[in-house]
Amino acid sequence: MAGFGSPQSQTTDFDAIAESVQAKLGCSCCLISVVDKQVLYALGATELEDRNDRVIPMQQTLCQHTVNLKHPVRVADATNVAWLQSLPAVAASKTGAYLGVPLVLGDGHVVGAVCALSESARDWTDEEVSYLAEMADLVANKIDLKLLRTEEQGLLHAMDEADRIIAALAQSRKVALSVHDANGDLLFANRGMLRGFGPGASGLAHLPRCSLSDDQKAQMQGGMEVRVAGQDGSEHWLHVDWCRTEGGLILCDWSEPEADAKIADPMRENQAG
Q1: Dihedrals φ, ψ of 65, to 5°?
Q2: Cβ–Cβ < 8 Å for 103, 143
């Protein structure tokens, strides 16, 4: 839930929803919060002393129980409930009644809660519980849309980067170049690669990721010798210089190893280690 709960986040829409809930239920306060480790971030809120301070320790909230139980929690008088009496808001007599509904995203994950608080005790009706559940669905849908837009932006950026790289590589015929995804699977091989190594270039379909050591996997670029199986079943060695892009792609420049190059089998070394 990074980006939703930080003080820098845009929370105007969620504040408006919280104010609507407060007006509809006639409660003292409404909080719309999401969980991040041991804290709740108030996406939307009313009646906060400092509206810029939206970080609330998880263990100090009534909403922790709504999130953990994953179903609505209805409390008429928190001061009479033993497992709630020690909470700061209850102990300070700022909270009498509590009604909380979990925030459930489209994938089924509970990420927070929408709650209504009243300073005095009150009985919550079934209609009020249903209304708050509908508002929680509205908030969850908005969060889903925000997450989807973020994922789409990242995907579009990666696609644009890949298009630029492939367009440039397609024009190069003098060098053998390939593009792999983050796992090392072959995405593209240019004409230089096909001309230099022929149809057997398909043997490079999962390099160099599978051959990288743990130290190399953490690097942004490097070079190595790789053993490749040809179409006729024979094996030979190639040198590859590789680098990583911001989008996670691996670019490879292939060549025949120098005559005096020291050949090592990285796959065998990794297995031996």
Answers
A1: -75, -35
A2: yes
| Domain enclosing residue 41, as ranges | 12-151
Whether the per-residue pLDDT at 237 is higher than 90: the answer is no
Helix (H) / strand (E) element for 89: namely helix 88-91
Residue 4 resides in a domain: no
Separation between Cα atoms, residue 195 and residue 168, nearest integer Å: 17
DSSP string, 137-154: HHHHHHHHHHHHHHHHHH
In DSSP terms, 110 is beta-bridged to: 104
Say which CATH number the domain at 175 has.
3.30.450.20
Domain with residue 21: its CATH number is 3.30.450.40
The pair of structure tokens assigned to 250 is: 């691996």
For 126-184, the pLDDT digits (tens) are 999 999 999 999 999 888 887 777 666 666 666 666 666 666 665 655 677 777 777 77
Give the CA distances from residue 135 to residues 2, 105, 146, in Å, rounded to whole numbers and listed in that order.
Answer: 22, 13, 17
Q: CB neighbours of 65 closer than 8 A, spacing ≥ 6?
A: 73, 83, 84, 100
Query: Using CA atoms, how far apart are residues 185 and 220, in angstroms rounded to an integer?
Result: 17
Would 137 be classed as within a structural domain? Answer: yes
Count of domains for the chain: 2
Interatomic CA distance for residues 228 and 112, integer angstroms = 51
Q: What angle do CA 156, 209, 163 make, to 5 degrees?
A: 25
